[in-house]
Design goal:
Layout lengths: L3 E4 L2 E4 L11 H11 L1 H5 L5 H10 L5 E5 L7 H6 L4 E6 L2 H10 L1 H5 L3 E5 L2 H7 L4 E6 L10 H13 L1 E12 L6 H12 L7 E8 L2 E8 L3 H10 L2 E10 L3 H6 L1 H13 L7 E8 L7
Parallel strand pairs: 3-4, 3-6, 4-5, 6-7
Antiparallel strand pairs: 1-2, 7-11, 8-9, 10-11
Length: 283
């Protein structure tokens, strides 16, 4: 996958602009998961996100955790309901970890873990999903608006007409201010789109280069509308940084209360729910 962020039919050339430095996010997340840093930063689900997901999921319904990682949301969704579904990730390390952690659910036939190209997910999808979730910035790691729209439209076609899509998106007003400034020159010369940034995580196995697209509320709603969704709710995903909100119980409760009363624009991330437009029209 060198030089590509591959999602089946959606392959975004990383060197389409001379000198482009966008990283291969599949490789980056393999390293991120394998290093243990992801688990140490985000040991638990965000209580607000999990509550929203469970409310949207019929008890015996079907869900798709898109970008499931090592199972931060997949496992509690299975444990707290009678639902089943698919956990999908392009990272082989994430899929391997999740298969081990969710072995009982896989054996019982309630969960299938799918990796690799997006086409494989489409082939394995089965019955329509009642809930599709892309938690904590998954969509923002996809380079190129056209590719993000194509993914959203593909997911829409896998959903029940009455289903819910739940997204956590990084808020451009709160995240990576220094990186936004540093990326301006790359935006001006066309190597990055507006809202794109490059950043780095430091781990015990070395630095990991990452890509993110940061969202405003307006852009997030427009992207969903263009993919054929009607937005239902937009609230903060958290007010505190996610790592604090999920690692300390009291802070998590405090953050949940704040997120219930403050506007989405103040969120560390944006938490959005939407449903497919009845006519399936896209703009």
């Amino acid at each position: 996958m060198d030089g590509l962020y591959s999602l089946g039919q959606l392959s975004v050339p990383l060197e389409d602009i001379s000198g482009s430095r966008r990283p291969d996010m599949c490789r980056s997340y393999n390293e991120y998961i394998a290093s243990g840093l992801y688990d140490s930063r985000y040991p638990k689900p965000n209580r607000r996100v999990l509550r929203t997901a469970l409310a949207a999921l019929p008890r015996e319904g079907r869900f798709l955790d898109f970008g499931a990682g090592p199972g931060r949301y997949t496992l509690p969704l299975l444990a707290l309901s009678d639902a089943g579904g698919i956990a999908y990730d392009i990272s082989q390390a994430a899929c391997a970890t999740l298969v081990l952690r969710a072995n009982a659910f896989v054996t019982a036939g309630r969960l299938k873990v799918v990796g690799g190209p997006l086409g494989g997910l489409v082939d394995d999808a089965g019955e329509p999903f009642d809930l599709v979730m892309l938690a904590f910035g998954v969509l923002g790691h996809v380079s190129g608006r056209a590719s993000r729209l194509a993914i959203l439209r593909t997911l829409r076609n896998l959903m029940s007409p009455t289903g819910t899509i739940l997204l956590g998106l990084p808020n451009v007003l709160r995240r990576f201010r220094a990186e936004q400034s540093a990326s301006k020159v790359l935006v001006r010369v066309g190597e990055l789109e507006r809202g794109d940034i490059l950043y780095r995580r430091t781990t015990d196995i070395g630095p990991i280069d990452m890509f993110y697209h940061l969202y405003s509320v307006k852009e997030a709603c427009r992207e969903l509308a263009d993919a054929g969704f009607a937005v239902d709710t937009v609230t903060p995903e958290s007010i505190l940084p996610e790592s604090l909100a999920v690692s300390r119980r009291r802070l998590g409760r405090f953050d949940d209360a704040l997120s219930s009363i403050l506007p989405a624009s103040l969120g560390y991330g944006l938490l959005i729910t939407a449903h497919p437009e009845p006519d399936g029209a896209t703009r």
